[in-house]
Amino acid sequence: MTTRKALVEKAKKLPETEWKIIKFNKPKRRHQSIRVHDGKTTIKDYEGDVRQIILTDHGRLQPTFLITNDFDLDLASVIEKYARRWLVEQEIAEQISFFHLNNPSSSIVVKVDFDLTLSLLAHNLYGALTRRLRGFESCNVDTIYRRFLQNGARINIQNRQITVSMKKKTHLPLLFELPWMKKITHLSWMGIDIKFEQGHVS
After folding, report:
1. Torsion over CA of 98, 102, 103 and 108, rounded to 10 degrees?
2. How far apart are CA 131 and CA 15, in angstroms?
3. Which of 26, 60, 93 is the last residue of a domain?
4. Are 129 and 73 found together in one domain?
5. 66 with 82: CB under 8 angstroms?
6. Measured on CA atoms in the order 68, 70, 75, 81, is the torsion positive or negative?
7. Does residue 98 belong to any structural domain of this protein?
8. Are residues 141 and 157 in the same domain?
9. pTM for this one?
10. Which residues form the domain of 181?
């Protein structure tokens, strides 16, 4: 079996004339053009050739290898299909690694369903937060947690108002650019207000 290291070394030795530049006309795409090699290879226990597409200059240190038996679809379409699939796989990986979706705490079926629902809700809320943090729109859940949410605070309760004074942190000012961090949140079922502020907790 060919190792990943051997594949990478083989890709580096391919002549420059065998590579193509594929350009994408999508404003939100970080890398508008990538370097691509379209070739054939074989895999164990599969009859015939398969299509092997190698991607470089796409923001990663090592080349990406795509395998497909579709020889008719144009290169750009194959890459776009892979990108959408990769986003789905990345979300599933985050849900497993960060939220432990594959290991819920409950053993009763009804509670397991509840655990899964809350985990998916939390993941979507992280996504909504990430899209609003300037400069961090493409970060994963673990990065957002460490940079913004993993923090200490001093909590002051007076009458029916709770003030959460968050510990100083490098990216905290960016978090407080969000509109809801500047507003007082009213919890009607408890009859209290919650206010967040940048504090001086040591």
Report:
1. 130
2. 40
3. 93
4. no
5. yes
6. negative
7. no
8. no
9. 0.58
10. 151-198
- Is the residue at 53 inside a domain? yes
Total residue count of the chain as it appears in this document: 202
Distance (Å, rounded) from C-alpha 139 to C-alpha 136? 5
Instruction: Determine, yes or no, domain membership for 178.
Output: yes
Q: Within a 10 A sphere around the Cβ of 132, how many other Cβ atoms?
A: 13
**Beta carbons of 58 and 32 less than 8 angstroms apart:** no
Q: What is the pLDDT along the chain (202 residues), one digit of tens a residue?
A: 567 788 888 888 888 899 988 877 655 556 567 888 999 988 888 888 999 988 887 667 788 888 889 899 888 888 888 877 777 777 777 877 787 777 777 767 667 788 888 888 888 898 899 989 988 888 888 899 999 989 989 999 998 999 999 998 889 999 999 988 989 999 999 899 999 998 765 5
* 126 and 80, same domain (yes or no): no
Same-domain status, 86 and 116:
no
Assigned domain for 128 exists: yes
Residue 158 sits in the same domain as residue 141: no
